[in-house]
Design goal:
Elements (H helix, E strand, L loop, with lengths): L68
Length: 68
Amino acid sequence: NGEKLLETTGGSPCIYDDVTLDATLQAGQNRLLVKIGNIDPGWGFLVRITDANGVAFDDLSYASPKVA
């Protein structure tokens, strides 16, 4: 939603909950932008969106934008 939440440099293994962030979602649509510099083969990222107790939301949905 236009706010930078995290910026890192260097590589690290792709492990769930290795890095956690607090963020407030707006009602309705929210936008998440992830930029990855492909510095090594096999890159990737994981996203888990939960409440403060780690419980998944039962009404959360997502869509990937079409890439031109």
